[in-house]
Design a protein that fits this description.
3 helices; about 45% helix
């Protein structure tokens, strides 16, 4: 992280640009069950350039499959 860069900026302009990492980030926020955390994660994903997501619920014993769609190309 560069000098003077906030964590939020680093998160949305670097870490979340990787689609797999962003999907894991969103999935974790969803599984926590905290609506404020979920709201914040959606806002961060929008800032990172994701315009939509698809959730495919599986059996209750399996994790949900999440796929995000970016408006810009992955690095």
């Amino acid at each position: 992280m560069g000098k003077g860069m906030s964590f939020d900026t680093y998160l949305t302009s670097n870490l979340l640009l990787d689609r797999k990492r962003a999907e894991a980030y969103f999935k974790e926020a969803l599984e926590e069950g905290d609506l404020e955390l979920l709201k914040m994660s959606v806002e961060n994903l929008l800032k990172a350039g994701y315009e939509s997501f698809t959730m495919n619920p599986k059996k209750s014993s399996e994790p949900t499959d999440i796929q995000l769609q970016q408006t810009r190309k992955e690095p």
